[in-house]
Amino acid sequence: MAAPVGEQVKVIDTVKAVFVAATADDLAKFHAVTTADFYAYDNGMRFDGDALMQAIQKQHAAGYVYEWNVTQPEVHVAGNVAWITYINKGSVKNASGTQQVTWLESMVLENKGGKWKIHFVHSTRAAQ
Fold it and tell me: Residue 66 and residue 59: Cα distance in Å, rounded?
C-alpha cells in the first residue's frame, strides 16, 4: 500500500536534501536529515556516520562533480518508519569529461519529532 501523498513528498524531499548537503559538502545539513546512527552501503563498502560525507568531500577535492536525481520513487510508510526505492539518474564529471551514471538506490527513514531522517542508504550502480 502506498504512503499518503503528503508523507511521500516529505520522504522524497528528505532524500533530495541529503543530495543538496552532499553536493555542498555541508555536514550541518547532512546531520539535519540523517539519524545519529546513520550508515550507508555504497561503492562496495559500509560507511558509518560522517564517513560517506568525508569520502564525497575527498572526491570533490580531487575535482569530481556529482549530479544526483531521484526518479521513479516508490515510498512506503509504516508508522514511524519509511522506505524509498528510486533510480538515481545523474552524472560524474572530472578532468576527463562527464559520464552519465544510473544508480539503483534505497533508503530507510525514521520519523523523529515529525521530521523524516535517513537511517540507512544502499546504492549500487545499475547495469549498463
Answer: 9
pLDDT tens track for 21-79: 999 999 999 999 999 999 999 999 999 999 999 999 999 999 999 999 999 999 999 99
> Taking the domains of the chain in order of start, what are their residue ranges?
5-125
User: Which residues, including other chains, have CB under 8 Å from residue 126's CB and lie 6 or more apart?
Assistant: 87, 102, 103, 104
Please, which residues bridge with residue 74 across strands? 85
Q: Which three cell numbers stand for residue 117?
A: 531522517
Which residues have CB under 8 Å from 72's CB, separation 6+? 86, 87
CA 39 to CA 46: how far, in whole Å? 7
Domain 5-125 part of CATH 3.10.450.50: yes
Residue 60 CB partners (closer than 8 Å, separation 6+): 25
What are the backbone angles phi and psi of residue 45, rounded to the nearest 5°?
-135, 165
Give the H or E element holding residue 91. Answer: strand 81-94
